[in-house]
Amino acid sequence: MANHKSSLKRIRQTVVRRLHNRYYAKTARNAVRRVRRMTNKAEAEAALVKVTKMLAQLASKKVISKHKASNLTSKLQRYVNKLA
Length: 84
Hints:
- This protein is an all-alpha fold.
- It is 83% helix and 0% strand.
- It has three helices and no strands.
- It has helices spanning 5-37, 41-60, 66-82.
């Protein structure tokens, strides 16, 4: 167990940040899954804009890596483009 006050504070901060990041990462994963299940191109394009924005924000906050955000965005865009 940590003995310094600063260490204890750092532990508290880490726990809060981890829970916050987990929540938003899970929300993004669910949003990506929702887009992948869509079959209507118009709906998918509308949802894609929101999901892309969400992924970019998470990447800028370093919740997910920028490469992961880029890869997900690219794959979703290709999926939506293939919809008839």
